[in-house]
Recover the amino acids of this structure.
């Protein structure tokens, strides 16, 4: 894996093809891998995720990636479930996650006008300016598909609301996360990925 490459961590997440196409449109190739040496050598690392937290963590642990990922020093971006896995725990099956960013993913409470999962377009509210959010305006729309969300905290760079406020983008050191799907969020998603790949 070359020094300018992007490693996509193979943690059993879906939507990999869409993510790779989104990267290719920006002029970057992403390699799906569990290989520790390739992940360490990559310039950027992406942890995608669609599915259940326990199954994803079991796959990461089976490959020793739960030990590797917290030690990485290059920019790391978690997407959707991948962002939640960066946190301490998830209420989904009460599973311990990677423990990199403080926080527990909690399930949304459904209501008659607010079904779970939260699926569709929603607005971002910027909490602070970060290179990851350069060129993205407060109130911009992005696409979500999730039943669990991380409360707002010190790492929250942008929030959204679905019955309650939740973290939509987090930044803590070289670890970043997007609860929404940038590969399905049009120009906003493309800008966030481009920022991640070129500003860090």
């Amino acid at each position: 894996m070359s020094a300018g490459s992007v490693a996509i961590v193979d943690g059993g997440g879906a939507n990999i093809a869409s993510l790779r196409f989104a990267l290719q449109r920006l002029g970057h190739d992403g390699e799906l891998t569990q290989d520790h040496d390739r992940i360490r050598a990559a310039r950027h690392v992406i942890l995608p995720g669609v599915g259940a937290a326990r199954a994803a963590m079991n796959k990461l642990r089976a490959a020793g990636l739960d030990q590797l990922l917290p030690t990485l020093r290059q920019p790391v971006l978690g997407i959707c479930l991948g962002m939640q896995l960066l946190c301490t725990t998830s209420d989904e099956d009460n599973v311990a996650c990677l423990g990199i960013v403080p926080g527990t993913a909690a399930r949304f409470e459904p209501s008659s006008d607010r079904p779970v999962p939260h699926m569709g377009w929603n607005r971002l509210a910027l909490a602070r300016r970060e290179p990851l959010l350069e060129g993205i305006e407060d109130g911009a729309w992005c696409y979500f598909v999730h039943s669990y969300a991380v409360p707002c905290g010190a790492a929250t760079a942008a929030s959204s609301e679905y019955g309650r406020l939740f973290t939509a983008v987090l930044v803590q050191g070289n670890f970043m996360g997007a609860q929404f799907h940038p590969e399905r969020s049009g120009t906003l998603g493309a800008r966030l990925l481009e920022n991640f790949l070129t500003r860090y």
In short: DSSP finds six helices and 14 strands in the chain. The domain at 6-198 is CATH 3.40.50.880 (Rossmann fold).
